Amino acid sequence: MISRLVVIAGFLALAASTVGIEAVSHRAGSRLVPLALLLRTVLSRRSARVAILLFWWWVGWHFLVEP
Amino acid sequence: MPSNNDGMAEHRRTRPSVIAAVWPSAAVLILAGSFHAYRGVPAEGIVFVLVGLAIAADRAGWLPRPRPHTFRLPDPRASAALAVLGAFALTVLPMRGIAEAVAIGAVGVLVMVVGWWQPDRTAAGSTERYRRTALLWCCVGVVVCLWELGVFLLADPPLHEYEYPTLSYLLQPIVDQPAGRGLLLVVWIAVGLALLRWSQGGITKAAARAGPSGHTDASGDGRADPDIGA
To answer: Do both A23 and A41 map to the same domain?
Structure first.
């Protein structure tokens, strides 16, 4: 049971860190850029664009179709 | 018999191609494909490895350059409407049925075609701020993957999945409910359309309000960096 709680706590901590990074990036004077702006740059190249789109598609396939 | 100079020239010509062939995107996809095969879904593994190899071949210059084509995409408001309508259409299909597999498979093919043929852009993302943010998100991504991988190996599915629940194991019961499934579909479609829009240079209102290097611009003229709208 403890192992389950530790695993879930780990996922929650990671989710909180992503929200935190994004929140920090939107503050005035931040040393980070918002994720949408970063993705806009990353997605300008075909290799990264196709890879990210494939991961996006796989999320839908994995949860909705995969048995 | 080629002379030493010819050999050196050949070496100089081929080395960048080989380096390009192990481009990170390709390497990540091939690694992910291998993991899919290991976890017992070889079809997904094959898709990831094939796309990874295609990217490597493209980076190495071994594939013909696709004729760039800029596809007309829905704006954010139309995307939101499309996401709701698309989610509704997919929700009425039987769960995990052939029709749903065909529909989601077709979406994947369509998106890959759009992503591949979209022309590369010169983006203004080379500042220290961009590099720092990219590094941070890469670190988060690697930690998420390692955590999920560690949990998966400890779970040895399906033996210890309750004690060591993977992200899929935790979320699947929610997705199996009609409301959860509908919500996932709306978010999934909206994110997909946003990714395609961003790949053409479009940005969200929130990001557009950001300043020259990515944070809020007091002038409120809605320009995040010099090439927005280019």
So the answer is: no
